[in-house]
Amino acid sequence: MYDMKALYEATSVENAVALRLEHPEAQIIAGGSDVLVQMREGKRAGAELISIYGLDELRGVRMDEDENIRIGSLTSFSHITRDPIIQKYINVLGEAVDMVGGPQIRNIGTIGGNTCNGVTSADSASTLHAWDAIVELTGKNGVRRLPIHEFYIKAGKVDIRVEDGEIQTAILIPKGELRKLLWLLHQVRHEKRDGHRDAWVQRERAPVAQQADY
Fold first, then answer.
1. pLDDT higher for 45 or 129?
2. What share of the chain is helix, strand, coil (3-state, %, to 5)?
């Protein structure tokens, strides 16, 4: 069914980097919801694949030591939608990725794969752009981070340095963006409270105003 030249399974991030340096023409595969479909259609016939699916260290959502939200690149859409940190701070991202395909696709599709395909119309891309997300890449020279709007070069092309063996390892939502959200929520609460108070004052004054008109 799938015409591939070879499949290499990475056992760690360091091993994935080494495999990419050794096989620079190989395609990184995680959930496979995009790559395997393309192979089945004959678009990647004879391809070499490096699977990073077994790297559990690239899964999950947490607050890092700098209070950024860190989303591992292998975190599935379903996980993101259900995660309590996402629901508390950026539920709009959970809602966006919950629109991807059906349940099976959301269970296997990853945020890393969704962003690395270079399609800015991808379900997670617009939300991550709005939040000024940071893309984390790991290669032979260590960790490199860049704003997501610099990560996307053009349609179908992203800034991953294959010559350095880079793979995407995480998406970060910066602490400053979270602070802006909390400030906005604070303002909304105050506006709602003040709006209710103004409406109450208007209701209380209404009979007096009507009597004065007579």
1. 129
2. 50, 20, 30
Amino acid at 176: G
Q: Which residue has the higher pLDDT, 124 or 23?
A: 23
- pTM, to two decimals: 0.79
**Has residue 33 got a pLDDT over 70?**
no
CB 113 within 8 A of CB 133: no
Q: Please, are residues 115 and 158 in contact by the beta-carbon 8 Å criterion? A: yes
Residue position matching structure tokens 């995009």: 34
The pLDDT value recorded for residue 210 is 39
First to last CA, the chain: 86
Q: How many whole angstroms separate alpha carbon 122 and alpha carbon 83?
A: 20
**Total length of the chain:** 214
User: Within 10 A of 37 (CB to CB), how many other CB atoms are there?
Assistant: 11
**Residue 174 above 70 pLDDT?**
yes
Q: How far apart are CA 35 and CA 154, in angstroms?
A: 19
pLDDT attached to residue 156: 84
Q: What are phi and psi of 66, to 5 degrees?
A: -95, 10
